[in-house]
Design a protein that fits this description.
Layout lengths: L2 H5 L2 H15 L3 H15 L7 H14 L1 E5 L4 H13 L7 E6 L2 H7 L6 E4 L7 H5 L2 E6 L4 H6 L1 H6 L3 E5 L15 H9 L8 E5 L6 E2 L11 E2 L2 H17 L6 E5 L9 E3 L1 H6 L7
Parallel strand pairs: 1-2, 1-6, 2-3, 3-4, 4-5, 6-9, 9-10
Antiparallel strand pairs: 7-8
Helix pairs in contact: 10-11
Length: about 280
């Protein structure tokens, strides 16, 4: 079985997808149009082999413990505190995966960014140059952004396309709704059971972090729609985690519903001493 087939969980996820479409009055036909639009863009790439890129990503995941960065309000303070205690080179021993605008913080801090997962509303073009892998998501409301970023999507070699509807090669549907929870869905077939996944800035509360979108200058309270999206993301993670053997920890944050183990910065750093990281 190809990695494309292994990572496509659309049929298993389909019931959730239909529930989300109904809850937000989203358009399945628009999501389908977005899939075709992204495929048309990807067809313009030269010497691009999606299976080879997935295999390359698999090898990278296989070597590392994993840090996943969300755009919640605890993102900045947590990263700054880890740097203060261990220095920025501490992050080099991890696979660093960012949800959308969290990638901007990593770039500002000159921290490694192995992959960014984005529907393109939280990043700027320079993130494509900074990230080794870019996983671009297409949905009915972001075709304008796909068009805006078209040239750089074409030129970035280690790029994967994801969609919300039934996938057609070369795009895939790992499941997931927001950029943050989609990372966890995407990781599912790549993980070894003994690997741990640590979440930073994955708060999913009623405060939106300032790195969620480039236009935001400070954290702010989530509006009703945003809060509803975050609630769905939490429920999706709750549904996903029993399907994965790995342990998940959220660092320096009170994760909703207690479905992910909470760990302090101190306890996290104790796991990775100067000797073993």
């Amino acid at each position: 079985m190809s990695l494309q087939d292994e990572i496509n969980y659309y049929e298993e996820y389909r019931e959730w997808y239909l529930k989300i479409m109904k809850a937000f009055n989203f358009s399945i036909s628009q999501d389908t149009r977005a899939r075709e639009f992204l495929i048309d863009i990807l067809d313009k790439k030269d010497n691009w082999d999606v299976e080879a890129i997935l295999e390359d990503f698999h090898r990278k995941v296989d070597k590392n413990q994993i840090l996943v960065y969300g755009c919640g309000p605890s993102l900045e303070s947590t990263v700054n505190e880890i740097i203060k205690r261990r220095g920025d080179t501490f992050f080099n021993s991890f696979l660093n995966l960012a949800a959308d605008g969290a990638s901007i913080l990593l770039k500002e801090m000159n921290l490694p960014l192995d992959a960014v997962f984005t529907d393109l509303d939280g990043i700027t073009e320079d993130i494509f140059d900074y990230a080794e892998y870019v996983i671009v998501h297409a949905h009915g409301d972001n075709m304008d952004k796909l068009k805006k970023f078209e040239d750089i999507i074409i030129s970035h070699q280690k790029l994967i396309g994801t969609v919300q509807v039934k996938p057609l090669s070369p795009v895939i549907n790992p499941g997931g709704f927001t950029d943050g929870d989609r990372i966890l869905f995407y990781l599912r077939p790549f993980l070894r059971p003994e690997q741990n996944i640590f979440l930073i800035g994955m708060d999913f509360k009623d405060i939106v972090g300032r790195y969620s979108k480039p236009k935001y200058k400070q954290n702010h309270k989530a509006d009703e729609v945003k809060q509803k999206k975050l609630n769905y993301a939490v429920n999706l993670i709750k549904w996903l985690l029993p399907k994965i053997l790995n342990k998940f920890y959220v660092i320096n944050s009170d994760f909703p519903s207690k479905i992910v183990r909470e760990i302090s910065i101190e306890d996290f750093l104790l796991r990775f001493t100067e000797v073993n990281y």
